[in-house]
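Backbone geometry:
***
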Amino acid sequence: MDSERRPRLTPAVADVRRAVREALTEVSPATPGMVLVALSGGADSLALAAATAFEAPRAGLRAGAVIVDHALQPGSAEVAAEAARQASALGLDPVLVRRVVVDGAGGDGPEASARGARYVALAAALSETGASHVLLGHTLDDQAETVLLGLARGSGAASLQGMAAVAGPYLRPMLGIRRATTRLFCVDAGLEPWDDPHNLDPRYARVRVRRVVLPTLEAEIGPGIAEALARTADQLREDSAALDAMVAEIIEEICEPAEAGIAVSVGVLAANPPALRQRIVRYMVESEFGVSLERVHTLAALSLVTDWHGQKPLDLPGVRVNRQDGMLVFSAPGTPPSKGLFRSHGTSRH
């Protein structure tokens, strides 16, 4: 499935191809093995598509494309059709175009709604084609912007970690590639990318970070800010993975099933440093109730450990927290007080 295009091997072409080649080592050999490229038609995803069309056959894989039309601006169907034409010209097969409905009135705003709809469409494309992975065109610049936005929102290490190069079936080969390199790739390969007008709209926080904040930081502090932010994300992700592994090792030992929920010893939580006990609480609540607590909620729950003076149960988003018999008990919202703490034997602890 080689493309008929034979661009000269410039530094930009070589860098993007090398990044894709390394990412494809994450794909286990299968018969027939297939990956998909999420293609918008912009320079980043178009460079990724061309590099994948070149590298996938050399890795023993088929490669296709999926184009998601968010229908957020006039002419979006034509843009999607042109992206599909370019994908086919590159030799990608199959090429899927999926139109989605974006609820711009959602509480998280149109950007988050569009992202949610896009990932639903990508997951459906994986299922439909039997592909193992979708390659996404996020670059080092996208990573730097994500870290800055997370820092501005005060959303903690989870946001400052940015985007992972491997996240389940999603691969991001170009997190070490600058956006300028993908544009050079397209020039060198004779590709004509689409420029999304939303990328110039200052109503979006990410656009302001891209066009104003990062250039200002570069001008005032010095070059290399984007790379430094991306390195920070890598380091935080490594630290987070280590802490998560520690929690995974001990969670089965310290948690017990309680009536309508799960419980953990107050003493065990108090004996751990704040970073670990916060992760223990978040892990328990997410695994048991499917709820992701924000930091303010985690700290409120842990106040029943660190600042206990007989408080009543706390009703947090998606979970009720109560201190009872030396245990911190997490249960479904509205659960009445329990006479016997544990599901199995009702033994009290002090």
In short: The two ends are 68 Å apart (CA to CA). Residues 225-254 form the longest helix (30 residues). The first strand starts at residue 34 and ends at 38. DSSP finds twelve helices and eleven strands in the chain.
